[in-house]
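Task: sequence design from structure.
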C-alpha cells in the first residue's frame, strides 16, 4: 500500500485517503521548516502554504504523485517537478481541484461588491462590474451579477486566444466602477499575458481618478501590495477589498488596516467546496494507483436557499457576512505582535469556513 502523507489541516483528508494506503498526517508549517518530515512519502497531499519545489522534492526521494485540493497552482515549481521526474525516471503526476470552490469564491466577491458599494454615493444597480478573468470563478460571478441585475463586462485575453469568447477591451474594463480579479498568477516566462504585479502603480493610478472598487480573490501577487498601500496612504479614492495577499500569512499590516475589506484568503472556504476538492484529488490519486473509488463527498446539513426577490440582497448577505469577518480579522491582525501575525492569519482563515450559498 502507498505511503500517503497529508497535511493534517486539510478537512476530511485522512478519512478520504485512508482507503488508498497508509496515511500519515503532518503540519504544513513544520514541513516548511523541515522538508525531511515527509521523506518517506510516496503520495504527498499538501495545502497551498507548502511550496512544491527543489528543497521539498529532494527531501522526498520516493514520491509517486503530488496533489493539493486547491484551485491555484502557483505554489508548485513545475520546472523543479519536471527535473524530479527526469532524475527519478517516474511520471510523478500533479493533481489539483480546479473549479471545486468557484461558487464560494464568486459568492465572496459578490459579497465584497455589495458591502463596499455603500462607500460609493450611487445606487448599486447603477454601477458596472468589470470581471478580469472569465474562467470558473469569473463566470460564476457573472451568473450571480445577473441574479442581482448588475451590469458587467469580462476581460480575458488568454481565453479569447484559445476560444470564440469575445470580451471587453482593457480600456473598457478599467472604466468600470468595480473591478473583480479572477486570474491565475503567471510570470512572463509562463504566459504572454503575465499577471504577476499586473495591477501595478501605473494601473492603480488609472483607477484613482474617480471612486472605484477593487476586489481581489485570485492571488495576492497579482496586485503590487506595496504600490497599493502607497496609493491608499496618499488618499486616493480607491476602495480596496482583498482576500489574498503577497507574503501570506504575513501581509503588510498597514495594508490590512487600510483596506475597506480585508480577509485571510478564505473566499473559497466553503464546506461543500472543500469536501469536493478533497474528493477530486482523492479520485485522481486512486485512478493513478489503479484503485477504483467513486466520489462520495459527505452530504452537508440542509440549509435554506437564498430567497427569490429583485434582488435577493438581504438573504444573501446574511449568509456571507463579509463585513463581520473583515472586522474580526483586521482587529486581531492589528493587535498581534509581528511574530504572531501568521498564526492569526491562519486561525482566522480556518474559523471562516461557511456553507455554500444555495441559489435554487
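Answer:
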Amino acid at each position: 500500500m502507498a505511503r500517503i502523507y497529508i497535511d493534517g489541516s486539510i478537512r476530511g483528508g485522512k478519512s478520504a485517503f485512508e482507503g488508498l494506503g497508509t496515511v500519515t498526517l503532518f503540519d504544513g508549517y513544520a514541513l516548511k521548516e523541515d522538508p525531511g518530515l515527509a521523506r518517506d512519502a510516496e503520495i504527498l497531499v499538501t495545502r497551498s502554504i507548502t511550496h512544491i519545489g527543489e528543497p521539498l522534492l529532494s527531501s522526498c526521494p520516493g514520491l509517486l504523485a503530488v496533489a493539493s485540493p486547491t484551485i491555484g497552482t502557483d505554489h508548485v515549481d513545475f520546472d523543479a517537478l519536471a527535473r524530479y521526474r527526469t532524475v527519478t525516471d517516474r511520471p510523478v503526476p500533479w493533481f489539483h481541484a480546479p473549479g471545486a470552490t468557484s461558487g464560494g469564491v464568486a459568492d465572496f466577491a459578490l459579497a465584497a461588491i455589495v458591502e463596499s458599494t455603500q462607500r460609493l454615493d450611487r445606487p448599486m444597480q447603477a454601477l458596472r462590474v468589470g470581471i478580469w478573468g472569465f474562467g470558473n470563478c469569473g463566470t460564476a460571478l457573472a451568473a450571480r451579477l445577473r441574479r442581482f441585475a448588475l451590469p458587467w463586462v469580462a476581460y480575458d485575453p488568454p481565453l479569447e486566444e484559445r476560444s470564440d469568447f469575445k470580451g471587453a477591451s482593457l480600456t473598457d474594463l478599467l472604466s468600470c466602477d468595480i473591478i473583480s480579479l479572477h486570474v491565475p498568477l503567471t510570470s512572463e516566462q509562463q504566459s504572454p499575458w503575465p499577471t504577476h504585479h499586473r495591477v501595478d502603480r501605473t494601473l492603480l493610478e488609472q483607477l484613482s481618478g474617480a471612486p472605484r472598487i477593487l476586489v481581489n480573490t485570485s492571488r495576492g501577487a497579482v496586485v503590487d501590495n506595496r504600490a497599493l498601500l502607497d496609493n491608499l496612504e496618499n488618499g486616493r479614492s480607491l476602495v480596496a477589498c482583498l482576500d489574498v495577499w503577497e507574503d501570506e500569512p504575513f501581509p503588510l499590516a498597514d495594508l490590512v488596516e487600510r483596506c475597506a475589506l480585508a480577509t485571510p484568503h478564505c473566499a473559497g472556504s466553503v464546506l461543500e467546496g472543500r469536501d469536493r476538492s478533497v474528493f477530486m484529488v482523492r479520485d485522481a490519486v486512486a485512478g493513478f494507483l489503479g484503485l477504483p473509488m467513486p466520489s462520495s463527498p459527505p452530504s452537508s446539513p440542509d440549509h435554506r436557499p437564498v430567497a427569490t426577490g429583485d434582488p435577493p440582497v438581504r438573504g444573501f448577505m446574511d449568509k456571507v457576512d463579509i463585513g463581520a469577518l473583515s472586522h474580526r480579522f483586521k482587529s486581531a491582525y492589528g493587535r498581534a505582535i509581528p511574530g504572531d501575525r501568521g498564526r492569526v492569519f491562519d486561525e482566522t482563515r480556518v474559523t471562516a469556513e461557511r456553507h455554500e450559498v444555495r441559489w435554487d
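The longest strand covers residues 2-7.
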